[in-house]
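Encode chain A's predicted structure.
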Amino acid sequence: MINTIIFDLGGVVLNRGIWLFREFLVQNYNVTNEQTIEVFIKKYYKPYFSGKISEEEFWTNSLKDLSINADWRELRNKLLNFFEPNKGMFELIDLLRKNGHTTVLLSDQTNEWWPILNKKYSISSHFDNCIISSEVGVHKPEIKIYEIALRDSKSQAEESLFIDDLENNLEPAKKIGMKTILFKNCIDLKKELISLEIKLK
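Encoded structure for chain A:
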C-alpha cells in the first residue's frame, strides 16, 4: 500500500522552465542547444543546485563560457518567468493529500530560485514536506537525497511512490525499494495512479 507520494518540481509540478530558458538563449544569443547543455546542465548545474557555488558564480561562469554579454540578474528573472504550473497538478496533489496520502516535494532547486517560485505559486502549501537540494547539500540522482526524503517524511521505501520526468532520477528510487512513475502529463499520471490502486475521488 502506498502511503507517501513524492513529486519532482520542474517537469512535474511545474513545467521545464530551465529547458525553455535554454531555448530562449539559443534563439536570442549566438549559442547552440548543445552548448547550453554542456555549460548549464553538465558543468555548473550540480555545484549550484547542491549549494556548492553561489548564484553569482553560477551565472558569471556560465555566461563567460557561452560568451554571452548580458546582465545575469535580468536573465535570472527571464528564466524564472518561464516556470508555470503544469495543468491539473496542484489539484491532483491536494486530492491525494485529502485522501490521506503524505505528499512530499523532492526538488533540485537553489537557495535563491526556490523561495521566489514558492512565493509565486505557494508550492509548499500543497505538500507535507519539501526537500530542496541546495538546503540538504545533495541532488538527484544521488541516493542520499531520496533517503533524506523518506527519513524526513517518516516513510518506508516500500510504501512510497516517486514521480519524476527523467528516467535517470527514477533509478535510485527503484534501487532503494520505492515504486516509481515516469511523468508525461497529468492525465496519464492519473491513469497510472489508479493502476496502483490509489483513489482519486
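The longest helix spans residues 33-49.
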